[in-house]
Amino acid sequence: MRSQMRHTALLAGAAVVGLAVIAFAQGQPTPAVQPQPHGVFGAVLDYMRRQPFILLFLVVAVGYALGELKVKGVGMGSTAATLLLALIVSFWAFDAYKIEYALPEFTSTVFFNLFIFAIGMKVGPQFLGGIHREGKHLILLSLLVPLLSSALVYASRYFTHLAPGLLAGILSGANTATPGFGAAQAALASGSAALTGDAARQAPGNLTTSYAFLYCISMVLFTVMMSVMPKMFGRDAVADGKKMEKELAGEDSAPLPGTADSFIRGYMPLDLRVFRVENPALEGRTVADLDHAHPRVAIERVYHDGRVYNPPPDLVLSRGDEVAMLGPVSLLLAGGPHIGPEVDDSKLRNVKFDTVEFIVHDKQVVGKTLGELALRMGHGIYLNALFRAGDQLPVSREQVVNKGDVMRITGSPKRVADLRKVLGPPVKPSLSTDIITLGLGLAAGALLGAITVPLFGIKFSLGSAVGLLIVSIGLSILRTHNPALGGPFPESARQLLEDVGLNVFIAILGLNSGAGVAHAIEGGLLGPTLIIGSIAAFIPPIIGWMVGQYIFKMNSAVLMGAIAGARCNSAGMRAAQEASKSIVPAIGYPVTFAISNLLLTLICYLFALMG
């Protein structure tokens, strides 16, 4: 435990290197004349200002590389490293050379929305099971963390004087709650705040500066904290993540249709063996005769007269031919000697197998049992799994097939082509991505998040993040019922959207924040803002974790996502996924994120009205 605490201290020390630079600069006089970029570093940083694309992806690349570094097995992760690097570069450029980076916020929004959508497309099938198990606990955590944070910020008024606008700025920045910041801005702009004269003029600037400063600092440190939190409390997030995945999926369950692992074949109780025809009784017999003699074994290929055949039923066999047979090992071992000796080095072994999914619609199949279908079309194929409405069904000869059921089947391309004539076109693994579904899903999620509901004079909305999560989770659940819905969405493409989306978003955030951090220093806001903000940012999540672990007995991987959501921190959720090596943290994230966001929006609005 002490060793883990030392590791945590080392990581926290690395994460606040930027803060040390800021603290040193706080006492430096502001130059009367803005200096022009000079020297090698000044020229490079100014060039990057004129080439923001190069700057952005250099920061992303180096941040990823730094995130891979570990101190005694513990690392910051790519998310925290990228944000910390971007913040240091941005502050350095502004403080030393008055170079201010201003990458387009729209670009940041696009990449963040891609990240959120990709998360929902992965977590959907597990989300309902997770909510069923932990729903009450998630709601309580989503209330506990933001309310405790708000109480701590409000209580600071009795110990220190806070300039106008800081109350709401500290709360929204410490919790990385952008909607709360927006609500506070609206409250100040409305003129309803209890402020007059200079205080009214100073409040918007104080609000913006404290929010921007704490947002970045809180994002970096909370991301690091999420990476080490389970170890601090003696939990193994990797083991807990795997345990939860097994509990939600079932020990022997196959991956659901439309999910990342749906086309991974796994164990198949069939084998391919090659036999040379030496039995005189087979001379002049056809492939159809051999099929009839071995009803549960399929003849996949034949080597005849120097050629390899995908054999037609009427192909006549001769002594010396080689026959590739697919079937259960016991039947191959029993039937093979009646054909001839087994051949080890035959060219016929190079038979490829495809795993595909068929959605049952044909009247010839609907209402039939699997036993009946096996006699008609089961030759040479293996039924991996059968699904109905997103649930796996037991495979037995008496199981009746209904319309809309999904059959996952493995067989040679020839066998799959034969099935296509009856079952229709299969759903196959694909490297392409359906851009239509992606575009419509992003638009629908943003539209849902933009819908506003007036309440107590405040216009509440879910926000694009929650809207996109709802749409993408819903779409991924529907795809488990019908894997053809929405076209192909391969896991490799989804993972790319998730990784690049978040890291580009936080890189832009860090690069755009250097000037705000510098202004916080010049305005003398660093001390009270940092102290109060740190208390409000990190004490409530720690208490929330203790409640979740010791009182609610929650799975640590789910708890990581719940705490990240209660802190409205998407980067922390990504760090939790990295630490647990699992998608499970995303199960606890959406509910707490939505409730906490709405709650903080209301409280920040009230804090701004209070001045």
Which properties best describe this structure?
four-stranded antiparallel β-sheet, single chain, elongated, disordered N terminus, 611 residues, 60% helix, Alpha-Beta Plaits, 9% strand, alpha+beta
Strand order of the largest sheet: 3-6-4-5
Number of strands: 12
Number of contiguous helices = 22
Oligomer: single chain
Transmembrane segments: 51-67, 74-94, 106-125, 137-156, 212-234, 435-456, 462-479, 500-521, 527-547, 583-608
Keywords: Cell membrane, Membrane, Signal, Transmembrane, Transmembrane helix, Transport
Protein name: Transport protein
Family: Belongs to the AAE transporter (TC 2.A.81) family.
Give an overview of the whole structure.
The strands form four sheets. A four-stranded antiparallel sheet has the order 3-6-4-5. It has a four-stranded antiparallel sheet with strand order 7-10-8-9, covered by helices on one side. The protein has helices at about 1-15, 15-25, 40-50, 50-70, 80-95, 105-155, 165-175, 180-190, 195-230, 235-250, 285-295, 330-335, 370-375, 415-425, 435-450, 465-480, 490-510, 515-520, 525-550, 555-565, 570-580, 585-610; strands spanning about 70, 75, 270-275, 300-305, 305-310, 320-325, 355-360, 380-390, 390-395, 405-410, 450-455, 460. With about 600 residues, the chain is an alpha+beta fold. The model is unreliable at about 1-35 (pLDDT under 50). Helix 8 (about 180-190) packs antiparallel against helix 9. Among the domains are: about 40-120 and about 130-245 and about 490-610, no CATH class; about 280-340, Regulator of K+ conductance, C-terminal domain (Alpha-Beta Plaits), CATH 3.30.70.1450. A hairpin with a 2-residue loop joins strand 8 and strand 9. It is elongated. It contains 22 helices and twelve strands.
